[in-house]
Structure formats: C-alpha cells, structure tokens
Amino acid sequence: MHKLSVLEMHRLSVEAFKEAPKLPLVMVLDDIRSVYNVGSIFRTADAFRLSGLMLCGITGCPPSVEIHKTALGAEDAVAWKYYKEPLDAIHQLHAEGYTILAVEQVEGSTMLTDWHIADGKVALVMGNEVKGVRQEVVDACDGCLEIPQYGTKHSLNVSCTASIVMWEYLRQHMEQKK
C-alpha cells in the first residue's frame, strides 16, 4: 500500500468547495463553549460537504485562532451564520422546510441505530458540552436522536457526537442515491 500525498488526494479548493453540491444537512450549534469543538465540527462539516453551520448563543465564530487550530481552514469553506438566539435559527430552518432533530437524550428519542433519513433537508442540533440542548430548543424540534452508549459514561464529546451523526446521515444519504 502507498500512503497518498496531499496532491494525490485531489482535494477541492475553497472556491471549488463553495460551488460544489452540498449534503442537505445543516448543523446547529447551541451554546458550544469550546472553540476547539467548534473548529472540529467545521472540519467534519467540510469533510462531508454539509450545507452549513448555524452558530448560536455563546458559540464562538470565525475568525478565531482557536477555531482555525482545529478547523485547519475549513471555516473558510463551510458556510455559517450566527444567531444570538437558537430559536431564531430553528424558526428560520423550519420556514426553509428543514426537519429539525436535536441530538439529545430525551424520553422517546430515536436511537441513531433506528433512524432512517427521509427525503428533504435536515438540521441537527448540538448542545452545550455540560447542559446539552436547551429544553426550549428540544421543544421546538421535530424529534430527537440519541447515540446508544454502553459504557460507564452517559455522554460523548460534542464534536465526536456531531461527527458520528454527520457520518450516519451521509452513509444513509449515499445509500439512498445508489
């Protein structure tokens, strides 16, 4: 096996990325306190070519040296918008025809292993590293997803969680396109 060089990977330029078709998925980040987590989510959103990110509340926004440290420039490619109030982002997404799902442990949540994506645009809401998605935001969503966990802890790092749910959406979306 030969490890590929950066040139052999044929990565898109920022300009080509902005013009390329996007996955009909948006991530809403509600009060993410660590800008390193925000940067990591930008980087994963770039990898899977998401439609964009909505940064809400205390979530840090580019330009930021700390975001850049983990995003590695993805913050220049991925579309993003800031909303002071996450409910404003939710209402905007609903008006644009998105199905909105909080990624949170709630009564009646759908386990990620049981989730089947539907046609149409989807927005996934990620919450604060300590408090999770605010109850009023959960109430405004169309449902909730939960990642099954089998260890001693009851949560995952928000950037890891975001990566897992983005991957599952992409996997199912690509399967539907076959």
What does this structure look like?
With 178 residues, the protein is an alpha/beta fold. It has seven helices and seven strands, in the order αβαβααβαβββαβα. A seven-stranded parallel sheet has the order 3-2-1-6-4-7-5, sandwiched between helices. 34% of the residues are buried.
What's the layout of helices and strands?
Blueprint: H1 14-19, E1 23-30, H2 35-47, E2 50-56, H3 65-71, H4 74-77, E3 80-83, H5 86-95, E4 99-103, E5 110-111, E6 122-126, H6 135-140, E7 143-146, H7 158-177
Parallel strand pairs: 1-2, 1-6, 2-3, 4-6, 4-7, 5-7
Helix pairs in contact: 2-3, 2-7
Based on the model shown, name its key terms.
20% strand, 7 helices, alpha/beta, 178 residues, 7-stranded parallel sheet, globular
The main sheet comes to: 7 strands, parallel
Q: Give the count of helical stretches.
A: 7
Strand content: 15-25%
What is the mean predicted local confidence, pLDDT?
97
* Class by SSE composition: alpha/beta
Oligomeric grouping of the chains: single chain
Q: What string, H for helix and E for strand, traces the elements in order?
A: HEHEHHEHEEEHEH
The N- to C-terminal Cα distance equals 28 Å
Overall 3D form? globular
* Unreliable residue runs: none
Tell me the Rg in angstroms.
Answer: 16 Å
DSSP, total strands: 7
Strands of the largest sheet, in order across it? Answer: 3-2-1-6-4-7-5
> What is the helix fraction of residues, given as a range?
25-40%
